[in-house]
Every structure is written in structure tokens, then in C-alpha cells.
Specification:
Layout lengths: L2 E10 L2 E11 L2 E6 L6 H8 L7 E6 L2 E2 H4 L1 H4 L2 E4 L11 H11 L4 H14 L15 H13 L5 E5 L7 H14 L4 E6 L2 H4 L5 E6 L2 E6 L1 H7 L4 E6 L4 H7 L1 E7 L6 E6 L9 E2 L4 H9 L9
Parallel strand pairs: 3-8, 3-9, 6-7, 7-8
Antiparallel strand pairs: 1-2, 1-4, 4-5, 9-10, 11-13, 11-14, 12-13
Bound molecules: adenosine-5'-diphosphate and magnesium ion.
Adenosine-5'-diphosphate binds next to β2 and α1.
Length: about 300
């Protein structure tokens, strides 16, 4: 399958949320990476025909998705950012309901539902009311319904929001396991969700694509611009005012700290260039709109 997204533009009143978004997706995992307000959900709502674009079109194997209607929806699994789950349904009943909406046969649903619930670790609560699930459980149920019917195109809007680190890893592994032969588009502002599983990273800044390349190509762009700078505790505030500090680690040996600094040139004597991470690149692009963690 090829999903061809051509010049999608969308404004809300005066506010332009997406500006001529163009990309060609083939099977594999794509990350749509950008801070809150970048336009990720707007794009996903358009790709799933839940929102009309102002202009541009989306073609699935050459055919406009708006003309395909039901035939497109059959290929599609969508986990919205704020899924509307029915609070009075049980987990199992909800999955059966979604399976029916997607046109799955009873036999197929009976086979798939237990497997999927096991994969997202909800198999121990099939009879629990959705209203009584924790945030993380609801999130995983949103993912579970999206993968019903083994869709060729899987669109996941912030699939790991509200999950603890262990659940994040489980969800990440689950996604990469089922991604073979599918187009999977994952919106996130969490670099570690997609750093090692995405074939391409689409960086979105204020509705505009700033990059659409493999992760390694992004870190290569800032090779030689990430530094470890040893410092004394008392110097931290002064160095933070002077440099873009992306992390501070205690240095057990010296009793001081080591700052991770983004700098075009060597920031100070004693600084050592280190291999960049994708998170460094994210901060490089979005630094001015991100509050740096100094923890
Ligand atoms: N329904 C809406 N009405 C008005 N403005 C909206 C609406 N949805 C999103 N926006 C605006 O569009 C921009 C992109 O939002 P969104 O697509 O939700 O970004 P993201 O998912 O990356 O956080 C933001 O400036 C947001 O405030
Ligand atoms: Mg969003």
C-alpha cells in the first residue's frame, strides 16, 4: 500500500494548523514528531476522514480516500488522541462492538479479541467497565481497538500518553511487532517512543514539515554540536545562562556535574564532543519552545 499525502493545508479561523503537508508513505513505521500544537492531530484527523482539509488530497494506492469511503475505512485502524470509549461497556463488550463496526466475522472476532487483549495486557480485566479503568488501561484499550481486523494502515495519535515506563516499552514492542507489512504512523512528542522503531521521522513544526528522513540522518545533522562539559555545582546557573544545556548529570568522580550542551563550537575548555542522540536533535529544532529539564 502507498498512502500519498499531497499538499494538505488546514486552518482553524486565522490559525494555520497545517501548511501544505506532503509525504509518501509505504509499509513501515513513521514517526510524526513535534511539540503540542504542531498539527499532528489535525493531520491524523484528516488522514482518517474525521476532518476536512482546506486543500490538498490523500490518495490510497492512487485513489482519493474520500471517494473510497467504506473501502478505505476497512483498511484503516485509528487510535485518536482522546478516544471516545463507552464508560458503561465492559472491555470485552467494547471490543466485540468495535469488531462488528469494522465488519469482522464472529469467528474472526472470537479468535482475535483474546489475542489482542493479551498483547496489550488487558486480558485480566475483560469484564471490567471502561469507566472503571485507569488512564493507562483506557489508553491500551484505545490501541487494542485500533489493531482489530489487522488494518494495513494504522494511525496512532499519542499512543503512549499516560503510560508508565514499563507500559511504554510494552506498547512500543507491540507496535513494532505488528508493523510488518503495514503503514504505521505514530504521532508523539516523546522522542524515545519512536527513536529506534521508526524508519523515517517526520518533524513537524507549527504545521510545517522540517524533516522527513531516517533517524540517523537527523543525528548526523548535529554531529560535533553536542558536548559534555564538566563543571562545578556553583557554575551551573552561569553556564545555563550562556549555553543551551539539555541535561545535567552528577559526576561521582569529581563531585561536580557534567552538562550536556548544544553548541555550534566548543563551548569551553575541557568540553568533549559526544555522539548526538535524536533527543538532542529534537531540542536543537524545538529548543526555544521547550522548557529544558534540569533534573
Ligand atoms: N478544533 C480546533 N479549533 C481551533 N483550533 C484548533 C482545533 N484543533 C486544533 N487547533 C489548533 O491547531 C493547532 C494544531 O493543533 P493539533 O493538531 O491538535 O496539534 P498537536 O496534535 O500536534 O498537538 C494548534 O494551534 C491548535 O490550537
Ligand atoms: Mg495532538
Amino acid at each position: 500500500m502507498t498512502l500519498s499525502i499531497q499538499g494538505i493545508t488546514k486552518s482553524y479561523g486565522e490559525n494555520r494548523a497545517l501548511c501544505s503537508f506532503t509525504a509518501e508513505l509505504t509499509p513501515g513505521i513513521y514517526a510524526l514528531l513535534g511539540p503540542n500544537g504542531a498539527g499532528k492531530s489535525t493531520l491524523m484527523n484528516i488522514l482518517t476522514d474525521n476532518l476536512k482539509a482546506d486543500c490538498g488530497e490523500v490518495l490510497c494506492d492512487g485513489e482519493n480516500i474520500l471517494d473510497m469511503g467504506e473501502r478505505y475505512r476497512e483498511k484503516l485502524g485509528f487510535m485518536p488522541q482522546y478516544p471516545g470509549l463507552y464508560p458503561n461497556f465492559t472491555v470485552e463488550r467494547f471490543m466485540w462492538y468495535m469488531a462488528a463496526l469494522k465488519g469482522l466475522s464472529k469467528a474472526k472476532a472470537a479468535e482475535d479479541i483474546p489475542n489482542i487483549l493479551r498483547s496489550v495486557e488487558l486480558d485480566d480485566v475483560p469484564k471490567r467497565r471502561i469507566g472503571a479503568l485507569s488512564g493507562g488501561m483506557k489508553q491500551r484499550l484505545g490501541l487494542a481497538q485500533a489493531v482489530l481486523g489487522d488494518p494495513e494502515l494504522l494511525i496512532l495519535d499519542e499512543p503512549t500518553a499516560g503510560l508508565d515506563p514499563k507500559q511504554r516499552i510494552a506498547v512500543r514492542n507491540f507496535i513494532s511487532r505488528i508493523a510488518l507489512d503495514k503503514i504505521v504512523l505514530i504521532a508523539t512528542h516523546v522522542v524515545s517512543d519512536v527513536e529506534f522503531i521508526a524508519k523515517d521521522i517526520i518533524m513537524l513544526k507549527k504545521g510545517v514539515i522540517v524533516d522527513n528522513v531516517p533517524p540517523a540522518a537527523l543525528t548526523a545533522k548535529i554531529e560535533g554540536k553536542v558536548w559534555h562539559l564538566p563543571a562545578a555545582q556553583e557554575e551551573v546557573a552561569m553556564l545555563q545562562a550562556r549555553h543551551r544545556v539539555t541535561a545535567i548529570a552528577r559526576d561521582e568522580r569529581s563531585g561536580g556535574v557534567v552538562l550536556r550542551v548544544l553548541s555550534e563550537t566548543c563551548p569551553a575548555a575541557g568540553a568533549l564532543a559526544v555522539p548526538p542522540s535524536l533527543e538532542d536533535y529534537y531540542l536543537y529544532v524545538f529548543g526555544e519552545e521547550t522548557s529544558f529539564s534540569t533534573g
